[in-house]
Specification:
Distance between the termini: 56 Å
Order of helices and strands: HEEEEEEEEEEEEEEEHHHHH
């Protein structure tokens, strides 16, 4: 019997090794990446791959809001995008969370012109975008001090003017609230239609999840109102409502389409609240179903910990969350 086990194990090992060799031998597709503040997309086939990340090395200017094209300014260095500027070292020390900076990238576009756009996600925690020296978008209020500063969660798609071959992208970022600062997520450049369609699909799916789980939650709460002995209906209803909110406060932050004037701090805390409070409700839901085999002391510890973390969301300054 043991000989058979060794035989099958050795065969399985050979199969695993063969799969590993096969995966590493596959030719990786060419992916352009910014180097030294420049990204050459002049030969990129947008017909084959209409959306490309503009990650890589961007020029970085600490505590400077650099102006438009043609100005020569001493840069602080090169910084990987996406990343936190907290990890960037200057004179042997990491930069502070609070402050402001500029990021710059020069992009070479193909001669055969399409209609291109750029997509930016949230940054830490307010930002402004300039294309070829012209301010085209601002999320929050970008300032050189905490006075007048306003954080904001906003994503955007910015259309690039037609017949543009040399594109200069400047992003001003400021942060006086969050522990992590800088260019948080990847940015993308692509065919305008494809970027808008992709964003639309994400929006539709988020609102689908919101509506579906909200209705499920209301349905289970209505059942509980008629059968109050069954606590599982109550817990599942609360969980479904909490889960319905979560898709609107992550990624594209569609909650601003419904309530555009919500404060940034409220949305930030709401994102954490749906997770930690939802965890405690799930534990209570499972305990209400498996009452005969539940471990009461373990349930109390898990629920207590989750509720404690939920309380911290309300009383802890944003910087420490």
């Amino acid at each position: 019997m043991f000989a058979d086990i060794r035989f099958y194990c050795s065969k399985l090992l050979y199969i695993i090794l063969a799969c590993i060799v096969f995966l590493f031998s596959c030719k990786q597709p060419y992916i352009p990446e910014a180097q030294a503040g420049t990204l050459d997309l002049s030969k990129w086939n947008f017909a084959e791959k209409p959306i490309v990340s503009i990650e890589g090395e961007w020029e970085f200017y600490w505590k400077q809001f650099i102006p438009s094209t043609g100005k020569n300014i001493n840069r602080t260095g090169l910084i990987p995008v996406p990343s936190y500027w907290n990890n960037f070292q200057r004179d042997g020390k990491n930069l502070t969370s609070f402050g402001y900076a500029s990021y710059r990238l020069r992009v070479k576009l193909p001669q055969k012109q399409e209609t291109y756009s750029l997509k930016f996600s949230n940054m830490g925690t307010a930002y402004r975008v300039l294309l070829n020296g012209k301010t085209v978008f601002e999320a929050g209020k970008v300032t050189t001090s905490a006075q007048g500063f306003q954080a904001a969660y906003r994503t955007c798609i910015l259309d690039i003017p037609k017949m543009t071959q040399d594109l200069e992208i400047i992003v001003h970022i400021a942060n006086y609230t969050h522990i992590y600062s800088g260019f948080w997520y990847e940015a993308y450049l692509g065919v305008r239609k494809e970027l808008h369609e992709k964003k639309q699909k994400v929006n539709y799916f988020s609102f689908f999840l919101f509506g579906s789980f909200l209705l499920i939650g209301i349905h289970h709460l209505s059942i509980y109102s008629q059968r109050k002995k069954d606590k599982s209906e109550l817990y599942f209803g609360i969980f479904a409502i909490l889960f319905s909110i979560r898709p609107l406060v992550i990624e594209e932050f569609e909650i601003y389409q419904l309530l555009p004037h919500l404060p940034w701090e409220f949305v930030f805390r709401l994102e954490y609240l749906t997770f930690y409070l939802g965890t405690s409700v799930v534990i209570l839901f499972i305990a209400s179903i498996f009452q005969e085999v539940r471990i009461i002391w373990l349930d109390k510890i898990l629920v207590g910990t989750s509720l404690f973390l939920t309380l911290l969301i309300f009383i802890t300054p944003i910087f420490y969350l």
